Queue: 2 jobs
Job 1
Amino acid sequence: MTCGELERLFLAGATPEEARRHANGCATCRSLGADVDAAQGMVAGLVGPALPASLRSALLAIPRNNVSCEGAERLLPVAMENELSDDEQRRLSNHLSRCAACSEAAATLAAARDLAEPVAPPWLTARLAANRPVREKSFWRTLSAPKAAIAFAYAAAVVVMLLGFNPADIARRVSASQLGENTRAAVTVAESSLTDRIGAIQEKVARTVQVWKGRAGGYGRAALSNALGVIWKSSGPKERPVERPRNRDGRGAFREISTTITTWRA
Amino acid sequence: MSAEEKALVDRCRTGDDDSWRELIDRFGQKVYSVAYHFTLNREDAEEVSQEIFLKTFENLHRYDGSFPLVAWLLSLARNLCIDRYRRRKREKSFRFVSDEAVLPLLKSDDDPAAEALKKERTKLLFWALAEISEDLAEILVLRDLDGLAYDEIGKALNLPDGTVKSRLFRARAEVARRIRERHERRGASGAFQTLTLAAGGVL
């Protein structure tokens, strides 16, 4: 069987008359055409099996017993809050038992609730503290700090004193006539306190100067001695010191040990 | 047609019971028929039909109306039907077709002799379908037994129309050749022609 003309005519949608005209002159296609017509004739009188009434009822009930994937998407968040009605819960369960994708989504959502809180590693707190942004202090802000203000006041008083004035007198002259009774008393206390502190500072400065004077004398003497040593060394040949005996590796003192070995012969 | 079917599907998606009933009444018979032709068993066909419509209901949002709804239903049905068909084919009794299996496919006839002839012819047809490859058999079932259009079969099986036609031609020729050879082996050379002539007067 080599002639494919009948199949070509069939695929091209030729009429049965055209196919029969070819088949009349071609024995191969006549036999093939008879087979094809016979097969078509066999199915021609068949009917489709009738849809059983029970099946129709079951098909109509599908939406009442199930939800679609789309419907499951809407019900899952409600199910997480345990707010589904019994009917919705039943339909969702039916769907989840059949649909792997929705079942996976539901299991993942449920598992999210059971996740443990991660424990911060011990180094994290220290690192966060170290990286905390530092607020830079302005000059005036630094000056207005209580300790800095006190130090600044003392420094000003020392400067005034070094210039040959008594800060207490200046303060008295400037403001005594303008101050009230209470303020004057406070100024008096402050004056005496300041005078005491200035005296203490003066003593401390004197002691420090004394100490540094001594140290400077010592450093000076040491420097002079070193300089003289250098001059003496560079002035002429010196006698080499006697070398001490050394071990083979050049370290430590060498000490000879002699041992007498006596052997007996039979 | 597809736009109208898309509208029907959209109404079903909103949970409209009347629309779902319309869908079942329009396509339930066709789907059951296809399932029966593949399984030749009422229980199996009912089970497959339910599964097909359940899958349809679950996936209504996927239907975009770009091709006929029946083709979309059959594309969902195809794997189920082919699975059953292959399972049945593995069974030793696959080629044996019972009287009960073919009875739902026959029109009742007043003439008992003519009815018996039709029954034998139908059993012979399903025997031959079991003999040929399933690629050819499924096209013949969908076209000649279920009356689907070429484009519906092409969309359902994801095949070009030309391939569908070509396979259909070969399937018919193969089925007829198997039946003829069987009769020739049994020495009843005229029986095949007698059967087919009596059935539809085609030859």
Job 2
Amino acid sequence: MAVALEDATVAFRIAGGRVYTAVEKARLTVPHGEFVAIVGPTDCGKSTLLNVVAGLLKPAGGSVRIFNAPLHGLNPRAGYLFQADALFPWKTALDNVAIGLEIAGVRRADALERARDFLGAVGLGAFTGRYPHMLSGGQRKRVGLAQVLIRDPRILLMDEPFGPLDAQTRQIMGDLLLRLWSADRKAVLFVTHDLEEAIALADRVVIMSAGPRSRIIGDWRVPLARPRDILEVRMERDFQALHREIWSVLKQEVTRGYAQSAQPGAAA
Amino acid sequence: MNRGWLLFLQLLVAIVAILLWHLLTTVPLFGRIVLPPFFFSNPIDVGSQVVAWFVSGVIWKHLLITLVESMLAFVIGSIGGVVIGFWFARQPRVAAVFDPYIKMANALPRVVLAPIFALWLGLGIWSKVALGVTLVFFIVFFNVYQGVREVSATVLDNGRMLGMSERQLTRHVYWPSALSWMFSSLHTSVGFAVVGAVVGEYLGSAAGLGYLIQQAEGIFDVAAVFAGMFVLSAFVILIDLGVTAIERRLLAWRPAGAGSH
């Protein structure tokens, strides 16, 4: 197993000394080379779960095992594509991608050459000298993807990576992601609130309940053949059947999530 | 508005102002001169004073002294501000201990320090440099402190996930962020370095633009006072242009328009 969460519980201390339990007893395993999408209503602790696997958050209970060894501190086998802009604004696209190798001790010239290849692979070969602010949102995500992939992590964590992009760009990015992923099939944990995106991309779709005390309440295998074309795959009957099935569960949670976040004091 | 037109309008403002000044100080209105030349001089006297300074060459010595003082104040104050600001930001406990004293020192009007510095460091350039340093230091200090503290949490997490050690985070994340904030305060801090130098000269010295103005004031030579002010303004504008050029190179990664000033 690349990732195994056993009854992982995540809690935060909030104002007034109270404790907010974001995720409760999450059980989740991701085998080698499997693409798992996590879907849930807003604020259900999807990102929290990713941060636990990344080692950025320590669970209050339960255990996290990475390649069958307990995780202490940051997860060195994981690459993390963040939801927010995480590129170094003072570095060019090329330097942003090369940095992961440079800090690992690769000679700068070699790192830059490899970075050039990776930028080429995400379709930004002509933008190496641009600073992040000179790139569009989609281009920045591509740089981010190259930045993460150049270190060849065995686990890829993605937190609504295409969330802020427009619909067309999301599809292009999804296709790009699948193409790059199929080359060496890393274990992927892909958080999204978009069920269609989840089914189109993943091998498995995991549903979380509305927070607080959010749990994993469903786990479906996606019966669609690979390689997939993200746009085409949505027309398939299996896709639509699965979508209907998962949505019937997700819908209740989404409704419950909205109701809860509408209550006063729920923002904590 | 295109550039040529803008420049024309900008020049027009100067011409109208100078013309008004000239008319009001030389041509009687209803039988009397509105601005007595004794207090307001007039553009021609001021202009010829400036020309005389440059022709005879006396001004160069004073300009050079003021320039040297300003640059020293800027460099020393900036280095101090960067080092201490960085240290405090990375060591919140140290910062908490010194916090009230930093605030106290910053609240002090620097002019009152000038006599002390003159006493300690003499009437040469170093007392002026010291005054400039006390001004520049705090601007740079607060900016760098802020810059280090306000590094985006996501960018930091990203650095960590990419495998950066604390030292590498300092070099690749904290440091560039702090420097960018320092550079964004470049105009202000260079300006204050000049203020420190000139005020110091004004309060006691034997050379520099501040000295020149103070001397002229001592003998009620209003034309020379105005001339000194004009030379000083031109001097500051030239330095500011230099700063802008440096800034363009160093902050190329910043979106245009953000953080200038």
